[in-house]
Design a protein that fits this description.
This protein is α/β, with parallel strands linked by helices. It is about 40% helix and about 20% strand. Belongs to the HypD family.
Length: about 375
């Protein structure tokens, strides 16, 4: 299959890894931003193909993982309202809130439905005019255009019974937050290709210049990631810090202008809290005033208690690349995909889930983190 089999070809992968070993002469710590990239790296054992001098660390690019616990609590409380149909992507259902998940709410009788697109929620609103349909809008720039289009269409149809609980986050501010930390060890980034399909990558140039780090927009197959690593290492070995695009078959520098215009029309940038990390200025999206009637948070105005996080969960440190899943004493025992303490064990893009499902041993995991990260 074109763009699939050739990007998983064993011989090509070995040749790419050999070239990385050839050009690498110094230790480098690189961060893959996206959780989907993390899963490919762990599942395919790519770290083990790299020289010991190159360390890959996980980033905060899992939208389910970084959705704040307060927003999970709000989604649960909204779902429990008698008139509400709450729609969500499936991997949000088991993410734990302070005391309950959406799956728990469903077991208590809440009408929680798994959908595959926000347009499914739009259809439900049309066919259930007597019910309030709420879509839990979680994601990075990748999912923002479809959510924006759904609100735009609902506005034109005057569907007053559709609203969105918005928890959108943005990649570049998260990268800046990682680089601004005094504990940061990241020297280069593999940027998320699917987000850049929407936004392009012009915004990364200022980050690269400000922090003197190379950034390579990268795809999600094994060869994509190894080529991204090679492009970063070549820059680092030559003292360069530039933005480059490995994912040329899908990403243009300017991105998708039509999608950007729709997102900009419906949403505006706001500060956003990230689970386990805290608030990052200008890192999220909210509905503009013109579309504020579709904002579920404002529509229902629920008064909730302050959220509480599991004291055992170290998800915030994992998402910043400062700890590995195996560093958590609850990993695989008190925290599993069936009974998670934190979102990275639930999400299909979560680092903890990747380690759990693909069976990396602790010895292998030691290869995946820099030694200095043991004392952040």
């Amino acid at each position: 299959m074109r763009y699939l089999d050739e990007y998983r070809d064993y011989d090509s992968v070995q040749r790419m890894a050999q070239e990385i070993r050839r050009v690498s002469n110094r230790p480098w710590t690189l961060m893959e931003v996206c959780g989907g990239q993390t899963h490919t790296i762990v599942k395919s054992g790519l770290q083990e193909l790299l020289p010991a001098s190159i360390t890959l660390v996980h980033g905060p690019g899992c939208p389910v993982c970084v959705t704040p616990i307060s927003m999970i609590d709000r989604a649960v409380a909204t779902a429990l309202l008698p008139e509400v149909i709450l729609c969500s992507f499936g991997d949000m259902l088991r993410v734990p809130g302070s005391t309950q998940s959406l799956l728990d709410a469903k077991s208590l009788g809440a009408d929680v439905r798994i959908v595959y697109s926000p347009l499914d929620a739009l259809k439900l609103a049309r066919s259930n005019p007597q019910r309030e349909v709420v879509f839990f809008a979680v994601g990075f720039e990748t999912t923002a255009p479809a959510n924006a289009m759904t609100v735009w269409q609902a506005c034109r149809e005057k569907l007053s019974n559709l609203s969105m609980l918005v928890s959108h986050v943005l990649v570049p501010p998260a990268m800046e937050a990682v680089l601004s930390s005094p504990q940061c060890q990241v020297q280069g980034f593999l940027a998320a290709g699917h987000a850049c399909m929407v936004t392009g990558y012009e915004e990364y140039f200022s980050i690269s210049r400000r922090f003197r780090v190379p950034i390579v927009v990268t795809g999600f197959e094994p060869l994509d990631l190894l080529e991204g690593v090679l492009m970063l290492v070549r820059q680092l070995e030559h003292g360069c810090a530039e933005v480059a695009n490995q994912y040329t078959r899908a990403v243009a520098r300017e991105g998708n202008r039509a999608a950007q215009e729709r997102v900009s029309e419906v949403f505006e940038v706001t500060d956003r809290a990230w689970r386990g990390i805290g608030e990052i200025a200008g890192s999220g999206l909210r509905l503009r005033e013109t579309y504020r009637s579709f904002d579920a948070e404002a529509k229902f105005d629920l008064q909730l208690e302050d959220p509480t996080e599991s004291p055992e969960c170290i998800a915030g440190l994992v998402l910043q690349g400062l700890r590995r899943p195996y560093d958590c004493p609850a990993f695989g025992t008190r925290c599993t995909p069936d009974a998670p303490l934190g979102a990275p064990m639930v999400s299909s893009e979560g680092a903890c889930a990747a380690y759990f499902h693909f069976g990396r041993s602790k010895d292998d995991a030691d290869l995946y983190m820099p030694v200095a990260a043991a004392n952040p």
